[in-house]
Amino acid sequence: MSFRWLYFALTASAVLFALADVFVAQPGRTVLTAFGLGVIVFALYLVRRSEYRYYQAREQVINLTEEHERTLLQLKRLERQQQFLMEGLPIPIIICDREAILRYANQTALDWFGFRSLTGKSILALTFSYDLYVLFLTAVQRRSQVVSEVSFSFPVERHAVASIWFLGETDEGERYAIALLDKSELVRLEQVRRDFVANVSHEFRTPLASIRSLAETILQDEAMPRATRERFLNLIIQETDRLTRIANDLLLLSRAESLPPQREQVDLSLLIQRAVDQVRTEAQSRGVSLTTEIQSALPVVANPDQMIQVILNLLTNAIRYNKPEGTIVVRAYMREPNLAVIEVSDTGIGIPSEDLPRIFERFYRVDKTRSRDTGGTGLGLAIVKHIVESHGGRVEVESEYRVGSTFRVLLPLYLTVLSETPNPDLEDQETA
Ligand code: ADP
Fold first, then answer.
1. What's the pLDDT score for residue 401?
2. Which fold has domain 186-259?
3. What does the domain layout of the chain look like in residue ranges?
């Protein structure tokens, strides 16, 4: 652009020189030459000026491009951060257009609904939840946030609070976000609580009803023979004892659940021995033989009272659900790499395989009458499981119906103490 001026100036001055040469006399020629030179100088000035402006504009364009690139980079970074945020959120986030077609789903949403690629599908096809679909249509209609509880039955049953809100317009149309807050655990716990209250009421109602009717009969029948009266009064005592046992077990369970147990380093073998000594008389009175194979020095960090309770509950069951002339073997040993194992095996009535998964539930009994007759509350194994798990251990059971059962408690050994404890096997080798 700048050279155009130069060409113009040079051509103009050349024309002026030529004209001057041909038509103009000497003094006028000088004036015209001076004018021509002036035109050249002016043209050169214009060239410089336009060049300056050109470079200035170019610099501005370069600056703008750099700024534009920086903004783009910043935008990309922000987009990536937003993406990471959405992907990392532990709640499912879904973005749909106004036709309820999926445009985005984060990783948690993929995990929830078990689809690899979700975009392009309707939320109805994804979630199989008509409730969510209707809620979505309401949000689209109102163009505002709607919140409601919804349930999903696919791929697993879930209860959630769904929140749907308008995100705004994009080049491709409106966008809506759906967030789901999982409430399944809360709903499950609420159900457990309701079942528990119902079970407790039921457990209390039965003995209370029989106490009341026995007392009423005694009261109304003045001519009742002494022997019958005594039998009825004994039944009342038995029922109140049962109520006391249930109340005590409930208290034990609630304490184990609410209080962090005071723990200390204890030798499990000594605790087992103490529990075995406590139940020996009951075993003898029921004609059940009780033998032990307890490895010495099994150090664990535990609450001694709770541990004795665990062993007592297992032993009492092994005695009460045994057969006449039956046997019980209590074993305790170390299992590599760092477990202490307590095993209580009996040759009792056994547990049918269909009942096995439920026996640790509160108030679950295989044979209600037998449990009641032997003084059971249906809470013994629930207490065992709770205490053992709160000590970082686990309970296992193997049973064959009418043959016998083995309950196994596995607890983490306290290894520091273990390494300081003299190993009897090694000592024997050394002396030999
Ligand atoms: P309970 O107070 O009724 O004994 P538990 O929670 O201790 O309650 O046990 C639950 C049920 O598991 C018992 O009612 C019984 O049916 C079954 N059970 C527990 N231990 C044994 C066992 N050693 N042999 C056979 N059945 C058992």
1. 95
2. Helix Hairpins (1.10.287)
3. 2-84, 89-182, 186-259, 261-432
Point out the ligand 1 atom lying closest to the alpha carbon of residue 346.
Answer: 23
Please say whether the beta carbons of 90 and 180 come within 8 A: no
For ligand 1, the distance from its centroid to the CA atom of residue 370, given in whole angstroms, is 9
pLDDT attached to residue 420: 46
Angle at 115 between CA 109 and CA 118, to 5 degrees: 75
Dist. CA 393–CA 341, nearest whole Å: 10
Residue 396 Cα to ligand 1 midpoint, Å, equals 14
Q: How far apart are CA 407 and CA 371, in angstroms?
A: 18
Residue ranges of the chain with pLDDT lower than 70? 1-6, 9, 16, 20-21, 24-27, 115-119, 415-432
Q: Report the pLDDT value the prediction gives residue 345, as an integer from 0 to 100.
A: 98
Rounded CA separation 406/399 (Å): 6
Q: Where is 370: in which H helix or E strand? A: helix 368-373
CB 363 near ligand 1, within 6 Å:
no
Provide the pLDDT for residue 378.
93
- At the second CATH level, the architecture of 89-182 is 2-Layer Sandwich (3.30)
- Give the global pTM: 0.67
Q: Quick one: CATH architecture of 261-432? A: 2-Layer Sandwich (3.30)
User: Which of 318, 287, 341, 340 lies closest to 404 in space, CA to CA?
Assistant: 318
- Give the pLDDT score at 4: 66
Q: What does DSSP say about strands 339-346 and 394-400: parallel, antiparallel, or unpaired?
A: unpaired
The CA 382 to ligand 1 mean position distance, Å, reads 10
DSSP 338-351: TEEEEEEEE-SS--
Looking at the CA of residue 372, tell me the nearest atom of ligand 1.
Answer: 3
Q: Is the CB of 269 under 6 A from ligand 1?
A: no
